[in-house]
What we know:
single chain; alpha/beta; Pectate Lyase C-like; eleven-stranded mixed beta sheet; 16% helix
Amino acid sequence: xxxxxxxxxxxxxxxxxxxxxxxxxxxxxxxxxxxxxxxxxxxxxxxxxxxxxxxxxxxxxxxxxxxxxxxxxxxxxxxxxxxxxxxxxxxxxxxxxxxxxxxxxxxxxxxxxxxxxxxxxxxxxxxxxxxxxxxxxxxxxxxxxxxxxxxxxxxxxxxxxxxxxxxxxxxxxxxxxxxxxxxxxxxxxxxxxxxxxxxxxxxxxxxxxxxxxxxxxxxxxxxxxxxxxxxxxxxxxxxxxxx
Length: 243
């Protein structure tokens, strides 16, 4: 089903999406999207939404299962508290991506903003994954409690791969970086170590899918060494907030 979002108020657009799903549509194409918020929020099941244009804030918040592909950029708070599913962004994305994300995959081809992966967490077999093809700004993985963040920095232009305060408050999960970061960029709760054979198997598994989505060479992406960032403590603030 195709919906023309041109000049549609965000509530009207989202009502049309939900109506289409209620009528049995499982493959929806949204044309002329221009900043409409909350697309795909709370939807469940085997549904695919393809977006032409730039969706607004909170794309796929609380989503549980569907796939969303946007041909261009996305704004802030993509995958907010997402439970399951997949989001593929063929451009850049904004701040606070994957806030409280509990499962599913978020693939971004370009750069991202601040506080990506904040409060990201895992639950039993649910392991959320964020893969960033470009660079990230400050506070990547802030208070991360679980899941996997992979930072690739595919286009090398002399800028740092990430900003400062990486992993501040981190107490679970892992961050993989394709390249190097300086110690001063890290939160004090994080340690650096080289990726080992087990890490490389895990990276290859997720990056194979990522490279297929963006028509990239897996061998070229895996051709540079990765480091991993892990929390040094499971309860970094236990003595401050609990007794």
